[in-house]
Design brief:
alpha+beta; Hepatocyte Growth Factor; Phosphorylase Kinase, domain 1; six-stranded mixed sheet; five-stranded antiparallel sheet; globular
């Protein structure tokens, strides 16, 4: 690999647009990056992309002034000098054999000997980022930064421990040490086995044992480092994310944006992942964490509280009112304090008393009468009293119940019952009254004027920003469900009388509307026809998706079941269905198609194996895979879904699904299992690979069945035929082959021969070698079956 050596004695100075030391390709640079005016970070960053994303920094992340200098000294040290000529050694290699420094194309800054041996390298001193080919061995660690723009130490640490576990911890902030109260919320469950975390040039991150066998896949992205930049980061919010970025940029026609996109997030929901006896949790004390639409945690203060540091949403929340007095007085507490209700909200482990088999009113009264009770949680007949400071706060549908947050009804911060007893002269009283009257009169006129101006501006803004519909407000949550109930009138107004139709099915029509939860967002309203089949579809859909919470499943926000009106309110997917995206004139990029395959597989895996109630979708096809703003795949339309009981693995039901995607066992009057979805996914995967429909006319008098054609190609080793005229896919033929063989395994006629969706996901990610699949027929030889089971 070519490199640009930096000779001993060389230096650079911190100035705006000042000099840097680049790698040979220019992909990376080392130097002073300006963070704010005249404030610089000594760092390594991606140099060719607009964001100039930092991957390593020195000086513990502290910013330095303009005029600071870094130098490779004559004796081979890397030294920082501030404007007052005070020196700090950043790197002191063992011995005096350093011949030069270099910024490598891997993102590694090194001090090397004459024969090219790295005597010191930034890769051995990682900050919050892990790059391809970087070594991450036992006791290696990443430490999150404080915030997006503050590179000093934050509250989270990622470690490959000596016991072989790969774990993310909260730290004893502001120290970076892990204490006995640490929160270990993600582990490989391979105690004593983990030896090294690998990040290869194919974009695959996995943990290996000392004998090089793969213990656990961590993340996989089909884009190689040849065409994409990769980085894995322990972000300041405590989530370990794998990012990719196209080196050549994107095209708007293909939908691919020139920006970092997230391939994997661990944990998927940090708000609910952290629960510790001591410590703040994902956000600060008294704060609440909620997963946003972008799948990133958002911190917020409850009613009556505000951030200690208004510029840092991860800071603690302070009480903005005087707490309830513990001194008994004649005043009625009901007139001083009230409760603010927040559904699906809790601060676990902050309670000091718990009561069972009680009513909500009883729970309110017991907290009202306790001056130490800041919050009461009521859920399923149980009441918890919480005291300050509150920790591990979260808002999540899985939490259920409600939080009753005590707050003072007015902003008076003086203790109740305390009055100013100092006597006032009469003249002083009269003048005070006159001044007070004048102030009140002036204030009243001013407030009326301001209110009039505000009303006009608000009305004008509303007309400009929301011409299409009235914003829909959520009503009470449906009992036992994680969704909201709406009236028909509200939905009718929110869709402007069902004005804009965006889709139509056998028993329903979908309209575009607008809804208000925490912020304004578009929604898709599914209006079902009043027929027996539609009634069944409505109940199936509410029961199935109302119990789910996964980034690869379309979110059901609410419903209306009012007389003859049955409607479902979904999040709006601006990029439509996979069918529209995949079978258009221009072929979608290979990278996008593979990401859609991964997302669909993960969504099905969640439904089959991770959801509290196992769900068989029964109608997986491109029309039911929807794409959001970032082309993330989300499974939708659960109208035909079947829910299995806890002790149930199969069910008997009438034929469901769509021609071309229906598994053979549907026609044999036998119980069906989740393997019917695996079959449908196999067909869908072949469509994603080839951008062809499963059954289409090939010539004037002939048709092609995609599954048969794909097996013939696989049998003859002609994998490239399925991706003809797709240069991006043909350049990734090893992965194409793996995807095709995985699809053939999925469409085996015998359900027992099909892998589970968990195994399918591992196959796609390359966690193990996919064996050659047998021909999909009703007859499977014993040797073929043994060949398949060897990969489980």
């Amino acid at each position: 690999m070519s490199q640009r050596n930096i000779s001993l004695g060389s230096s650079i100075t911190a100035t705006s647009n000042g000099p840097v030391w680049e790698s040979a390709s220019g992909d990376f640079a080392f130097g002073f990056k300006e963070i704010t005016d005249e404030a610089f970070l000594l760092a390594v960053w991606f140099n060719k992309i607009p964001e100039k994303t930092v991957v390593w920094w020195a000086n513990s992340g502290n910013l330095v002034q303009s005029g600071s200098k870094v130098q490779v000294t004559a004796d081979g040290r890397l030294v920082f000098t501030d404007p007052d000529d005070r020196q700090t050694s950043i790197a002191v290699p063992a011995g005096n054999n350093v011949s030069y420094a270099a910024m490598l194309d891997t993102g590694n800054f090194v001090l090397a000997s004459e024969n090219g041996v790295n005597l010191w390298q930034s890769f051995d001193q990682p900050t919050d980022t892990f790059l391809p080919v970087q070594q991450f061995i036992k006791d290696s660690r990443l430490l999150a930064r404080f915030s997006a723009d503050n590179y000093t130490n934050g509250r989270f640490k990622f470690i490959l421990q000596e016991d072989g576990n790969l774990v993310i911890y909260t730290t004893e902030y502001p120290l970076d040490s892990v204490t006995s109260w640490r929160t270990s919320y993600w582990s490989t469950d391979t105690v004593g086995s983990g030896y090294q975390l690998m990040f290869n040039q194919s974009g695959f991150i996995y943990l290996i044992a000392q004998n090089k066998t793969i213990l656990k896949p961590i993340s996989s992205d089909p884009s190689s480092t040849e065409n994409f930049y990769h980085r894995a980061v322990l972000d300041f919010d405590g989530v370990f994310r794998h990012y990719v970025y196209p080196k050549a940029g994107g095209t708007s026609s293909g939908g691919w944006q020139e920006a970092w996109s997230v391939s994997t997030s661990i944990p998927s929901n940090i708000c609910t992942a952290i629960t510790a006896d001591v410590g703040r949790g994902a956000c600060g004390f008294n704060s609440l964490c909620q997963l946003g639409d972008d799948q990133r945690p958002k911190c917020q203060c409850p009613h009556g509280y505000s951030f200690l540091d208004p510029n840092n949403e991860m800071s603690d929340c302070k009480q903005d009112f005087e707490s309830q007095s513990c001194i008994k007085n004649s005043q009625n507490k009901d007139n001083l304090f009230d409760f603010y209700e927040m559904k699906s909200t809790d601060w676990p482990l902050s309670d000091f008393e718990q009561f069972g088999s009680v009513s909500e009113d009883w729970c309110r009264d017991i907290c009202f009468g306790d001056c130490f009770c800041a919050v009461a949680i009521f859920r399923d007949g149980t009441c918890w009293k919480k005291k300050l400071p509150l920790s591990n706060g979260r808002i999540d549908p899985s939490t259920g119940g409600k939080a009753l947050i005590k707050y003072r009804l007015n902003n008076d911060t003086s203790p109740p019952g305390v009055e100013n007893s100092s006597p006032k002269p009469k003249d002083s009283d009269d003048s005070t009254l006159i001044v007070a009257g004048a102030v009140l009169l002036f204030s009243s006129v001013l407030l009326n004027c301001l209110f009039l101006i505000y009303s006009c501006l608000k009305k004008r803004k509303s007309k400009v920003l929301q011409p299409q519909s009235k914003i829909l407000q959520p009503l009470a949550t449906a009992p036992g469900m994680n969704i909201q109930r709406f009236t028909y009138k509200e939905i009718e107004e929110a869709t402007n009388g069902f004005e804009e139709e965006i889709g139509k099915g056998a028993f329903a029509t979908v309209y575009k509307g607008s809804i208000q939860f925490e912020n304004k967002s578009l929604v898709a309203v599914k209006k079902l026809d009043k027929v027996v089949e539609a009634d069944k579809e409505f109940k199936n859909e509410v029961n199935a998706i109302g119990r789910t919470n996964h980034k690869n499943l379309v979110q059901l926000l609410g419903f209306c079941n009012e007389g003859p009106h049955q409607l479902l309110v979904y999040e709006f997917m601006c990029n439509g269905s996979l069918a529209d995206f995949l079978f258009r004139n221009s072929r979608p990029r290979w990278h996008q198609r593979m990401q859609i395959a991964f997302g669909t597989a993960r969504g099905l895996c969640y439904m089959h194996e991770e959801c509290s109630t196992q769900i068989i979708h029964c109608d997986i096809k491109p029309q039911n895979i929807l794409l959001d703003d970032f082309f993330t795949a989300k499974i939708g339309d659960f109208g035909l879904a079947k829910l299995l009981k806890t002790d149930q693995t199969r069910t008997i039901t009438n034929i469901r699904g769509t021609k071309g995607y229906v598994a053979p066992e549907w026609f044999k009057s036998v119980p069906i299992t989740v393997k019917v979805d695996v079959y449908s996914f196999g067909v869908l995967l072949l469509e994603l690979i080839s951008c062809r429909k499963n059954f289409e006319q090939e010539a004037e008098d002939g048709y092609i069945v995609l599954t048969d054609w794909a097996f013939d190609c696989c049998k003859n080793g002609n994998f490239e035929v399925l991706v003809e005229d797709d240069e991006e896919a043909k350049n990734d033929l090893v992965r194409v082959k793996r995807f095709i063989m995985t699809a053939i395994w999925c469409i085996q006629d015998d359900p027992s021969m099909r892998p589970t969706m968990k195994v399918v996901t591992q196959m796609l990610e390359g966690a193990f070698e996919v064996p050659t699949p047998p021909e999909p027929t009703s007859f499977i030889t014993e040797s073929s079956y043994n060949l398949y089971t060897s990969c489980h």
